[in-house]
Amino acid sequence: MPIVRQWTVFEECSLLIWEISESLEELQVGLITTLDECSEYETISHPQKRIEWLAGRRAMQTIVEASGRTYTGMRKDQYGKPFLNNGVAEISLTHTARFVVVALHPRLSIGVDLERIAPKLARVAPKFLSLPEMAHASDDLKRLCTYWCAKEALYKLHGTRNLSFKEEILISSFDDGSNFFGGEVYPVHTLLPCQQHRLYRFQVDDFLGVLAF
């Protein structure tokens, strides 16, 4: 079983990192899927995307069953936010060509994201960072990746559309030596109140991830 790490954050929130090493056939063995999920899978034509899709569900089934709960497959709402079919916990997942990360909390909405620490983040930083965030990140790739993943994780947590990464998802300055920091979602174009969140940073090889809680 290709589990790189499985641990608990924020008391009851579980995280699992799965390194993708299996074939399509291996990933399908013992995997629980619904008819809707099978239909979605059939729309995926690229072999690597099929592997990532299957690995995400295998990892999710693993973390749900490890928590003592029954896994019956996943569904997505109109915004693409994933949920367990039987509603036994709140979930989030992210995947790259190499790793899948899944997160589970028994009650509260969560979001998780993973990204390779790469120079491309410096090129797009002005599009997603506020001026204070730009000043703090400078040209440090690990800081830039932290900001990106934190904003993406908060976006996934809220599960809505049209939130501006630059103006409505704001990340507090963080200490490079700490994995815990904070952020807020301030939807300036709606009547929703500002919401404060805790963030947790982790790393696997040259990939950095953030969990939003």
Give structural notes:
The structure is a single chain. The protein is α+β, with helices and mostly antiparallel strands and 213 residues long. The chain has two domains: 3-108, Alpha-Beta Complex (Ribosomal Protein L22, Chain A); 114-212, Ribosomal Protein L22, Chain A, CATH 3.90.470. Helix content is 31%, strand content 30%. The protein is built from six helices and eleven strands. α4 packs across α6 and α5 crosses α6 (141-158). The longest helix is centred in the N-terminal third of the chain and has 20 residues, at 47-66. It is globular, with a radius of gyration of 17 Å.
User: What is the radius of gyration computed over CA atoms, rounded to a whole number of angstroms?
Assistant: 17 Å
What CATH calls the topology of the largest domain is Ribosomal Protein L22, Chain A
Shape: globular
**Range of strand content:** 25-35%
Distance between the termini: 27 Å
Structural class: alpha+beta
Mind summarizing the main beta sheet? 5 strands, antiparallel
> In terms of per-residue confidence, which ranges show pLDDT below 50 for 5 or more consecutive residues?
none
Outline:
The chain has 213 residues and is α+β, with helices and mostly antiparallel strands. It has helices spanning 24-28, 35-42, 47-66, 120-128, 131-137, 141-158, and strands spanning 3-9, 13-19, 74-76, 82-84, 90-95, 99-105, 111-116, 169-171, 180-185, 195-204, 207-212.
